[in-house]
Write a structure and sequence with these properties.
two-stranded antiparallel ribbon, 218 residues, 2 domains
């Protein structure tokens, strides 16, 4: 009778050990895959290109869109493109009557103004600022620039650009914070997977020892 009880006991222990071994192995796989996905989450804090529409100057309620521009790495290429945009702004303003704008040293004034307004941004955003102002200046001139206060128009453009950049910066800050939290969770799950692997190995060793013990008794 004792041998029967012992035999049944070994069977129960073996089945429980096998069950826990399977569960721990499944936990290793699930935690390993999930932690890998969380740790390898990628995000960028790059600010998308702010896009300002001239129609918003006349109707501030309308919505705005954003698009992504390429990053200009070469300094010479940046300067050439930046100067070209400044030249477009100057050319557009130069078509206005003298009563609308002071054209004395206009090119130099515009270049300095655009440099100052965009100086706090990255080179990519500096170029975007110049492009945006050049495009909107042309539109402003085409729809009756002689009736527009140029200083007020440039101030409006600057405010709209800053508004979009700040909004994207805040969104990026929140997104990067969430990404760090996800990565921290991933590392915690990886540690849990390592612990589950240790438990799995322990149960496997227990099953092997029980098998050896059973064979020895037989």
């Amino acid at each position: 009778m004792l041998r029967s009880i012992e035999k049944n006991f070994f069977k129960i222990v073996q089945r429980l050990g096998l069950l826990f071994a399977i569960l721990s192995f499944a936990a290793v796989v699930i935690l390993g895959i999930t932690s890998y996905q969380k740790i390898n989450i990628e995000a960028t804090d790059q600010i998308d290109t702010p896009v300002i529409h001239f129609a918003d100057y006349q109707n501030p309620i309308s919505t705005q869109e954003v698009e992504i521009t390429t990053d200009l790495k070469e300094n010479d290429a940046f300067n050439q493109e930046f100067d070209a945009q400044v030249a477009d702004i100057v050319a557009a303003l130069d078509t206005l009557p003298d009563t609308s704008i002071d054209k004395t040293d206009l090119a130099q004034k515009v270049k300095i103004l655009v440099k100052i307004k965009s100086n706090d941004y990255s080179k990519n955003l500096q170029l975007t600022y110049a492009k945006s102002l050049a495009k909107l200046t042309k539109q402003m001139v085409n729809v009756g620039g002689e009736k527009t206060n140029v200083d007020e128009f440039i101030r409006w453009h600057d405010q709209e650009f800053v508004k979009q950049v700040n909004a994207q910066t805040q969104n990026n800050f929140l997104r990067m914070g969430s990404l760090k939290a996800e990565k921290a969770t991933g590392f915690a799950m990886l540690a849990a997977a390592a612990a589950a692997l240790g438990i799995f190995i322990m149960f496997v060793m227990m099953l092997v020892m029980l098998r050896i013990e059973r064979n020895t008794r037989q």
